[in-house]
């Protein structure tokens, strides 16, 4: 018994020692690894998209630090506490690995994405040259020039400017093909396909986007302003042809199988020269009263339809199958008039994508130009949903498919530009994208077209790691005039281990051309040491809107374990330019700081911008990470959410408000009013595409007709269709009076130069809106807008009352309106103090500093404007103010010189 007991004690002691040694080894390894990588945690793979990527753990799994925190955040247990806290340590280790399983990024494997657009080294000069080109071009030839303008303006990323270019291109389009593509492109920009219950052939009432109007050849200079008549379908095609003047000189009988069809010989002969030769020429049929047409390829019903057409010039009684027979017959015997009638009428009958997919090959075979255009229109207006349909791919992708389309005038640079943009947005590295860009290159005729096609193809091939082919494309794009493609060449050389050559390429650009921010940003990728930071800082000085320099500096701070400073650096750009990659990086930093509430806020805001966002180089779903982090924060009830929303709204914290609304939508996904609030915040953050997506979701989740009309009206208003938006608002009010309908109508009307009568009507509409049920968030905005109208009408006391009422329900922006009232009453001190209150409350303060500068002396104004520029470099007023001051100073010096 004693021996057994001793043996058990020895075994327990040995187990305890083994466990102790293993734990000591574990923490020693962690400590040594942390000390080796004390500057931060490294990325393994290079960044290739706009996301901030984490490293691929496959090659460093055994040595990578699972704690992505600075040393000060790590807690190393004492020997006496190891056994007591070993279980807790294991749990802590698992939690850290869950939250940041791939560590934080590092500077030496981080690069900005290549831009896929034409990027001029002198943007203003290029834009001016295009304007001159537009002025010198005949109206009916301007369509492609406006498309070139679109390609150039893509670098600005302003959806409204781009939409205006497309509308101008459509307005000046002459041929059916261009009209079809451009009207489909405009529809794609609005994403009408996402509206539940909408048809591909729906339109907003304007000629430029009407699918029926697109099938009419000719130039109409007023088309951008004209309303279409969709109720008058194109069924008139083929029904109004004049009757032929041929003599009725007898009857000819066509035998088809066992059936006979009697026709008037002269009218059949009048259809074409071959039929005239057959019936009146030297052929034996000219002497026959009965002609065998059994093997001609037309049925008895088809021949009766031919006879009916020769008598009436009408096709509306024919079935689609008979029409197809007539089209084939017309091609066989060169009956151009009947072919045109069949082509037009068949085109007008197409109503859905399935019919188009069936008829497209037949139309191409018969060379029915309008029918092909109608089929293409339905395919294009269903994008991106049908992009990967095998029939659609077969129609567009191969070189042979392009040639088939070209035979009927339906292959163009315009078509493949649209298709390639859709493909790039959906999946940049897919084989379909490559094929469409190859077709785009084949269709390119002008230099700018070749430059664009080759540059975009080079970018896609670079992403697909086809470095040599990508380099060749970039070099050809440079020959075609796109200097920015040198950046692509440099990247391909870097990937092939030629870093010095890449540096020399970019350095030559800086020497040769006027230096720009993107040039220094690019050179920083190939610089080392202090020069790298100097280039990054110079890039920010020349172009504060570039996101890469801020992210680079933030990551460098993370490597130095200065995570709070990294958050501050990212905040510098997030405060004026919201992008998913910056929000993602800031969320990582908050996780490293164990500030999970802030991390959740950022990830929810990120998911609002991109609902399917994948973090850590596409390895972790962002919504899954939110679920994990939510287990470590206090949950909010619906009442808490509303309180938080009001607080963040009143503090002008738009990202925080987005986060709260995202949480509320998880609990109530069908709440259309929340989607609408979301769209307002996204517009305020200049995220127009995401805002439009939220508006469409609000419309789709609406449970009432009047509410759907309001959201459809806002969609139209935000895409530049004010009159249509007003019509939607009025229709909604006719069904039910609501706050949003009155507000939309007032907002749309106020978007013009108002006279006293119009201002009174807008005031009346806003007052009616305030009488309708709504929440404080929207009523605060209505009161603020009403105050602004009163100010314009010089009703300052009424305006002040509106602003005070808005402030009582926490509409903080009303401070600005109230300050304006004080200023107009010659009380600049009160105006200054009012704006100071806004600055004290608001999280986003740039506009407040800018406005406060109007209510103080010159030195204080300069300080406020400097702060506004520091917070938001995109605000133009501070630059104009300082430029005007410098101009006055220079003029004053000139006067003194003249005096002496």
Structural descriptors:
900 residues; mainly alpha; 45 helices; disordered N terminus
Task: Outline the secondary-structure elements.
Layout lengths: L1 H35 L42 H21 L23 H14 L6 H11 L5 H13 L4 H15 L20 H4 L36 E6 L2 E6 H5 L3 H8 L9 E3 L7 H13 L7 H13 L3 H14 L3 H14 L2 H12 L9 H7 L2 H9 L5 H14 L4 H13 L3 H17 L3 H13 L5 H11 L3 H14 L4 H8 L5 H13 L4 H13 L3 H12 L5 H13 L3 H14 L5 H4 L1 E2 H9 L7 H13 L3 H14 L4 H13 L3 H14 L3 H14 L3 H14 L3 H12 L5 H16 L4 H17 L3 H13 L5 H11 L3 H14 L4 H7 L5 H14 L5 H23 L1
Parallel strand pairs: 1-3
Antiparallel strand pairs: 1-2
InterPro entries: ETO1-like, SKP1/BTB/POZ_sf, TPR-like_helical_dom_sf, TPR_rpt
GO biological process, one term: negative regulation of ethylene-activated signaling pathway
Keywords: Coiled coil, TPR repeat
Structural write-up:
By secondary structure, this protein is mostly helical. Among the domains are: 123-215; 250-345, 2-Layer Sandwich (Potassium Channel Kv1.1, Chain A), CATH 3.30.710.10; 498-535, no CATH class; 544-635, Alpha Horseshoe (Serine Threonine Protein Phosphatase 5, Tetratricopeptide repeat), CATH 1.25.40.10. It is built from 45 helices and 4 strands. It has a 3-stranded mixed β-sheet. Strand 1 (251-256) and strand 2 (259-264) form a beta hairpin. Helix 31 (638-650) packs antiparallel against helix 32. The longest helix has 35 residues, at 2-36.
